[in-house]
Amino acid sequence: MTSTFRLGTRGSPLALTQAAMVRAALCAAHGWREDAVEITVIRTTGDRVQDRALAEIGGKALWTKELDRALLDGAIDCAVHSMKDVETIRPAEIAIAAMLPRADVRDRLIGAESIAALRKGAVVGTSSPRRAAQLKRLRPDIATVVFRGNVDTRLAKLAAGEVDATLLAAAGLDRLGRGDTGVAIAPETMLPAPAQGAVGIETLTGSPAAALVAAIDHADTHACVLTERALLARLVADCHSPVAALATLAGGRMTLAAELLSEDGAEHVTGRIEGTRGEDLAETLATDLLARAPDAVRRLFAG
Ligand SMILES: NCc1[nH]cc(CCC(=O)O)c1CC(=O)O
């Protein structure tokens, strides 16, 4: 490792905020001065492709490929990601070395006081197949349109009247200083995306950087997010699949809740399981959900 610790990140305002959070945590853990961590901005495919629904070009490591390359080339020591955007299956050379404590996992609705309060036939901007399906499950009259760009861009499109409302992660809004934007939707109404609200730090597997980064790991967040990711792996799903999942830990017990939907939200299946070993919970719940899923849902999952 060189004398400075090189941290790679995307360049969006949210990504830069998250990178600064990781830098602060590393400096606090190791007694480093702030300038011991050098932040390198790396442009990803996802940042360049602003004009098409991500779901249309999914499955191509949109947010991670260039950061992976930089890690593998030794250009950076670690890469910071929203765990929600990290592919389900990662290269063996790259390890999730740590996660920051999870933030608010909920989605926020912006543009109406509640989902019920949306006008009949409202148009909601979202590029998330999960959010679109969940909205239509609750309100079949609602139409969704593709909505791209970073958080500020989306809020500007909403303000310009392009849509009636949008849904965004509370975690991102809060980190951008927009804690007063929108109303939180309870997980019981709209279960969040797997890994929503979690920031992860990747390194080369077994590298000196991995050990340094492990010092800032939040074990409970890590265990919960890995469980949600294990569910995705078992379902052969990713962040473009209409699937929601949330693991929580209390008193050493883990609860995993999940929902699979058809793309139009007309059909869905939900389940919940409690136990101690996350990977076992994910395996058991995935098997159960697939067994109970209506055909229109099952065919979207498990290959
Ligand atoms: N897919 C984009 C993305 N990836 C992570 C976040 C928010 C931060 C988080 O969930 O940790 C967002 C924006 C959003 O969904 O509103």
Automatic annotation (TrEMBL):
PROSITE patterns: PORPHOBILINOGEN_DEAM (PS00533). Pathway: Porphyrin-containing compound metabolism; protoporphyrin-IX biosynthesis; coproporphyrinogen-III from 5-aminolevulinate: step 2/4. Its EC number is 2.5.1.61. The keyword Cell membrane does not apply. Keywords: Porphyrin biosynthesis, Transferase. Residues 223-290 form the Porphobilinogen deaminase C-terminal domain. Gene3D superfamilies: Periplasmic binding protein-like II (3.40.190.10), Porphobilinogen deaminase, C-terminal domain (3.30.160.40). The keyword Transferase applies. Transmembrane segments: none annotated. The modification S-(dipyrrolylmethanemethyl)cysteine is found at residue 239. Pfam families: Porphobil_deam, Porphobil_deamC. Its cofactor is dipyrromethane. Residues 6-206 form the Porphobilinogen deaminase N-terminal domain. It catalyses: 4 porphobilinogen + H2O = hydroxymethylbilane + 4 NH4(+). Binds 1 dipyrromethane group covalently. Belongs to the HMBS family. PANTHER family: PORPHOBILINOGEN DEAMINASE. The porphobilinogen subunits are added to the dipyrromethane group. Monomer. This is Porphobilinogen deaminase. It comes from Sphingomonas immobilis. The gene is hemC.
